[in-house]
Amino acid sequence: MPNLNSTQGLGNGGFWPWFLQRVSGFALIFLVGVHMWMGHFSGLQEVLDGRREELVLYEVVKLRLAQTAFIVVDFALLALVLYHALGGLRSVILEWGPAASQSRSVTLGLILLGIVTFAYGSWVLLHFILA
Amino acid sequence: MDHFTLKVKRSTRGQDSDSTQAVYSVPMVAESMSVLDAMLWARGNLDSTLAFRCACRVGMCGTCGVRINGREGLACRTLVSTEIKYSGLVINVEPLRHLPVVRDLVTDPGNFYRRLTDVIPSFQPADLDAAPVAIKPDSSERLTINPHRECIYCGLCYSACSMAGEDREFLGPAAFNRAFALVSDSRDEAGTERMKAVDGRSGIWSCHTIFECTAVCPKGIPITQAIQGLKRKHFFRKVQSLFRLGRPS
Asked: Which CATH number fits domain B3-107: 3.10.20.30, 3.30.300.350, 3.30.70.1070, 1.10.1370.30?
């Protein structure tokens, strides 16, 4: 049955959320590419040749995170993944009638979730950087 | 003569609670028989109370839009022979979605037309007395506009659009298509108002680019392309307005 009494004026809130979701998506293609290459492919030959025991080693990650460029890449990746994922989740939630009237609460809740998750992710990264 | 089964969703007040499914055995009178022909045969020979709309019977008026085997289509342009190939001699016919059902297959298109008027669907020239400057047939402007002028406002795209079902205020694919055709026309003067109308909470940004509207359009209009075109135009307007910041207009 069509939802003819549905909440009016749903949607994800206009141009800027839509635009930033796409910009973060494109940036993620690059950052995830760098992350995947450095983490899972760059030392693959050494592992295959038997020169290294495992691909992802604590020491290797620690060495990588001693470089400013990788610190920037990893923090940017963390921030953008969270922004993109939670922005998408917000869009899905707000298109559900009952949640649409609670738009501010939903947005605030997701911002808090983003901050907490970013803090946790940063704590993990700092563990490598400061160790 | 071979027969097939025509199942029609019927209701008296458009409520699902009182809806029933009428089952008719209809003879396949010709290879070119349309679903509308089958419905007319059922009404003429089996049940004179069956309610549906039709007018031109050649796919020009858009009046006979229904859902046929779960897919929006014009009953007059959908062949029975094509449908029964995939559905085992059964054709299910339902009213369009997202619009109140008046009775059986007759829906009230009021909300569909109201959303259309939100985008100012008529051409607005700068000077009503001056003859409009012609756009050359081979110009890029004309080639951009042309495919989007073919809309017959049948409402199939509105029924196929999932956002139209979630949000009554959502302008819908037909309104976006009309807005795109008019804002692409350099002679039209209401572009700013139209762009403002499609920029709202129930505007183009709610479209998820699922292509359902384009898939069901009986005129083959690239509606999703129109929506993307509006998004692109809006983006460039935003960029322009950002660069004008702090400058006297």
From this structure: 3.10.20.30
Cβ within 8 Å, pair B166-A3: yes
> Which among B161, B168, B208, B237 is the top mutation candidate for probing chain A, defined by the most A β-carbons within 10 Å of its own β-carbon?
B168
Question: Are B16 and A95 in contact (CB < 8 Å)?
Answer: no
Structure-block tokens of residue B94? 């339902």
CA angle, residues B184, B188, B193, in degrees to nearest 5: 85
Residue of B nearest to A88 (CA): B208
pLDDT tens for the 249 residues of chain B, in order: 589 999 999 988 766 667 899 999 999 999 999 999 999 999 999 999 999 999 999 999 999 999 999 999 999 999 999 999 888 899 999 999 999 999 999 999 999 999 999 999 999 887 777 776 788 889 999 999 999 999 999 999 999 999 998 888 899 999 999 999 999 998 889 989 999 999 987 899 989 999 999 999 999 999 999 999 999 999 998 888 888 765 554
ipTM: 0.72
pTM for this entry: 0.84
Q: Which fold has domain B110-243?
A: Fumarate Reductase Iron-sulfur Protein; Chain B, domain 2 (1.10.1060)
